[in-house]
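From the methods appendix. Each design record in this collection lists the tokenized structure first, followed by the designed amino acid sequence. Records were kept in a plain field format so they could be parsed without special tools. The example shown here is representative of the layout used throughout.

RECORD:
FOLD TOKENS (486 positions):
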């Protein structure tokens, strides 16, 4: 059976220098990486003359394939607390999830080849583990390798500990690039990769794809027998992508229940000549949907917990959930910690509160924009029309815009009574909303980055902002879809 090639023989990550990077900067960066155990196994776009013209910028982007040794990966796995399946001495619980340690590596390697069936004894009804997704020792997957090497890159400072300067730091100084955290007593070097990325010298850092694993996932996805290859996706793309596909696979199956019930109610309604307002089965369908939603949520929580335990991302306590590492992009001043007495990077809380206030103001403006777009869409679809003015009497309808509403009147371009014209504003709104969501995501990411969160939990703030925007859009859509008129 084919397994992953030796980590020393293939590139794990691609590091691309932009055209702004000078040859001497590239040369000394590669030297700094090699000194930390990160070596170049492939290169593209670098000429032999580049080293001779050290002070000149490259004429094209330069791409390096980076890798390291198995021992370095294992040391990094222990350092970041990677969780892997481990053997125990307990016959009742032969396999548990433990933080990997180099000293106890024999308990972690070749779990899939042990006499104990991992899937059947650890947790039930989980994706089958494919031995070809792992290395020769059954320890790391492609996603694990990429994660560990990226962690090594992010943790690598420009200067070694207690080192005041180097060839690399002098090159950065000549380019007027700040590579240390200023402090009255001493300088603390920043992450080399983040310095290069923030100043535009490096524009891409990403994993190297494996053609045979991609083809394997594609075959399994297209097969009706195997279903969605969640475990293979997790082993190749990582937990974040795998949870997305696990959720989509789960919901695709569960949505069949209300879909079939809705179809039955629709057929009965048409046969009896009822409408959604006077159909006797509509309330019961709503009640069934309510219980379905509650049951669906609980079942997904159980599956999510099982997958999280299997993939080593389950946190058993609140302390475990918040104990994430410091973001390399985090900016602050160095100070002595009042708790530990050690030097730490600190950002004043009052400054972050001010940024929170600005972010809240921008988010409010975005929410107002999303609300306005949905109201205009309701006018174009005929949900808000001149017929609603009678209900308001002498008062002005707050959501009625005559110029847009008249386009949905009979005979107009978006005739709401037409079988096909009524779909035009729906399609236009869908296209517009998709582009609006992309723009909002970009703004949310920029705002969250600007707020300067210390830990890697900051993507949750992006999701919070996007949730408010999407909730506003969905609320208005549901409001008019249910009531028909306002």
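DESIGN:
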């Amino acid at each position: 059976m084919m397994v992953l090639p030796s980590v020393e023989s293939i590139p794990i990550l691609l590091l691309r220098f932009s055209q702004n990077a000078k040859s001497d900067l590239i040369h000394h960066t590669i030297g700094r990486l090699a000194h930390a155990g990160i070596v170049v196994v492939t290169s593209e776009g670098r000429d032999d003359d580049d080293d001779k013209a050290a002070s000149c910028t490259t004429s094209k982007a330069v791409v390096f394939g980076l890798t390291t040794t198995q021992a370095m990966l294992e040391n990094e796995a222990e350092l970041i607390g990677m969780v892997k399946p481990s053997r125990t001495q307990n016959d009742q619980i032969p396999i548990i999830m433990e933080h990997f340690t180099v000293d106890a590596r024999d308990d972690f390697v070749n779990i899939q080849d042990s006499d104990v069936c991992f899937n059947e004894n650890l947790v039930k009804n989980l994706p089958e583990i494919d031995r070809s997704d792992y290395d020769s020792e059954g320890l790391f997957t492609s996603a694990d390798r990429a994660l560990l090497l990226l962690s090594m890159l992010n943790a690598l400072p420009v200067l070694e500990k207690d080192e005041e300067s180097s060839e690399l730091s002098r090159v950065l100084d000549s380019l007027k690039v700040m590579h240390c955290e200023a402090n009255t007593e001493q300088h603390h070097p920043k992450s080399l990769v983040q310095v290069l990325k923030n100043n535009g010298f490096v524009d891409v850092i990403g994993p190297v794809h494996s053609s045979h694993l991609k083809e394997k996932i594609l075959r399994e996805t297209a097969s009706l027998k195997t279903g969605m290859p969640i475990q293979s996706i997790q082993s190749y793309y990582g937990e974040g992508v795998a949870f997305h596909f696990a959720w989509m696979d789960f919901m695709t199956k569960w949505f069949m229940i209300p879909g079939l019930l809705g179809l039955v109610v629709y057929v009965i309604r048409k046969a009896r000549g009822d409408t959604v307002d006077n159909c006797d089965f509509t309330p019961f369908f709503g009640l069934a949907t309510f219980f379905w939603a509650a049951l669906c949520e609980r079942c997904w929580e159980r599956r999510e917990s099982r997958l999280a335990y299997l993939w080593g991302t389950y946190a058993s306590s609140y302390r475990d959930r918040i104990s994430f590492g410091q973001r390399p992009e985090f900016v602050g001043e160095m100070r002595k910690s009042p708790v530990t007495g050690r030097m730490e990077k600190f950002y004043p809380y009052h400054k972050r509160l001010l940024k929170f206030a600005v972010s809240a103001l921008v988010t409010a403006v975005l929410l107002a924009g999303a609300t306005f777009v949905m109201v205009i869409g309701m006018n174009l679809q005929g949900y808000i029309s001149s017929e609603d003015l009678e209900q308001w009497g002498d008062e002005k309808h707050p959501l009625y815009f005559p110029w847009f509403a008249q386009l949905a009147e009979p005979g107009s371009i978006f005739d709401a009574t037409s079988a096909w014209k009524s779909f035009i504003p729906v399609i236009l709104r869908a296209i517009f909303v998709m582009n609006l969501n992309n723009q909002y995501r970009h703004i949310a990411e920029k705002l969250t980055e600007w707020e300067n969160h210390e830990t890697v939990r900051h993507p949750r703030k992006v999701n919070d902002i996007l949730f408010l925007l999407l909730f506003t859009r969905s609320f208005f859509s549901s409001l008019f879809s249910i009531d028909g008129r306002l």
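APPENDIX NOTE: Residues 349-380 form the longest helix (32 residues).
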